[in-house]
Structure to design on (340 residues):
């Protein structure tokens, strides 16, 4: 009787070890019972990345070329040619805040809003009226101008000098180029034009050339920030995913961009962490049910955090392999046998 007892217990112990191993494997692969997202997919009500009305009027996007005009702060050098004894007449003057310059022999001349040619004609007329010259050939040279620039602000910012005109893509390149979080819809504010222009650069280089509109001195280019969704946790790639204005980003799309979940990821406990004012809200999403079409695929909003927790059991199995699994099974069997 004593010799047969171990022989009789051995099959029972092996069966229990196998059963415990199967139970452990089932627990590692079966979704946990947690509250799931069962309501409708939330829309994008964050107030960012809303589609803008793209400007399509060619008269606004591609206006006729225009000469730069003189403004307060411009530093001018005056030259007179073709008149004997005028070699020493080359005064330098800065346009004052009231738009005028003070010159020897000519007095005060208002030049604000005039082109270089118009400003030279105004100075020549003043010299003739003063009886100093009969037909002076006056030329103006702008040696310093804080106004002949395009201001780029927003995600990309800088001051871009402009002589005559400059293209939008050139100005963006000089300012440092677009960042990963920069929107491809650019807003242009132009003096004298009440309605701002919205230009969509798009993602196609061929189409972007059509949006390479001319810029003039005084224009302001606004590069807005696109929304970002953060993928954290047991993803293959943890990253910040930019949003686009006219295409919603869902949970499954974000998971795909992040490279998908790792083995140790607890798919049944995927979470959307959203900040609403001063409150933080967590919504649990069962990734497997969403993928199977049993639950809706929620739409993510700007600054949402898509978090995939790590299953401790799966992480231990991945770290130790089958040896860890068999160790857990043997430990479960030993506890079961000794509890009797």
């Amino acid at each position: 009787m004593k010799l047969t007892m171990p022989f009789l217990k051995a099959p029972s112990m092996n069966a229990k070890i196998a059963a415990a191993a199967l139970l452990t494997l089932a627990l590692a692969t079966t979704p946990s019972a947690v509250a799931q997202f069962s309501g409708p997919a939330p829309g994008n009500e964050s107030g960012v990345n809303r589609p803008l009305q793209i400007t399509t009027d060619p008269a606004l996007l591609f206006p006729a070329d225009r000469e730069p005009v003189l403004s307060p702060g411009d530093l001018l050098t005056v030259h007179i040619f073709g008149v004997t004894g005028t070699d020493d007449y080359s005064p330098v003057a800065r346009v004052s805040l009231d738009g005028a310059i003070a010159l020897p022999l000519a007095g005060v001349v208002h030049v604000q809003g005039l082109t270089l040619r118009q400003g030279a004609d105004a100075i020549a007329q003043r010299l003739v009226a003063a009886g100093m010259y009969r037909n002076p050939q006056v030329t103006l040279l702008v040696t310093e101008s804080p106004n002949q620039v395009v201001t780029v602000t927003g995600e990309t910012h800088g001051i871009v000098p402009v002589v005559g005109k400059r293209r939008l893509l050139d100005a963006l390149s000089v300012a440092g180029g677009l960042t990963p979080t920069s929107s491809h819809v650019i807003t242009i504010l132009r003096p004298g034009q009440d309605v701002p222009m919205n230009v969509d650069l798009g993602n196609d280089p061929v189409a972007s050339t059509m949006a390479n509109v001319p810029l003039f001195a005084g224009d302001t280019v606004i590069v807005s920030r696109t929304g970002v969704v953060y993928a954290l946790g047991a993803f293959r790639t943890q990253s910040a995913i930019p949003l686009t204005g006219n295409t919603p980003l869902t949970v499954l799309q974000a998971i795909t961009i992040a490279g998908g979940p790792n083995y140790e990821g607890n798919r049944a406990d995927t979470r959307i962490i959203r900040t609403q004012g001063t409150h933080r809200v967590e919504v649990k999403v069962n990734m497997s049910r969403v993928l199977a079409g049993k639950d809706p695929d929620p739409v993510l909003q700007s600054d949402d955090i898509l978090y995939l927790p790590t299953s401790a059991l799966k992480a231990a199995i991945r770290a130790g392999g089958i040896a860890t699994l068999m160790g857990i099974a043997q430990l479960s069997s030993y506890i079961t046998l000794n509890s009797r």
Q: What stands out?
A: The mean pLDDT is 78.
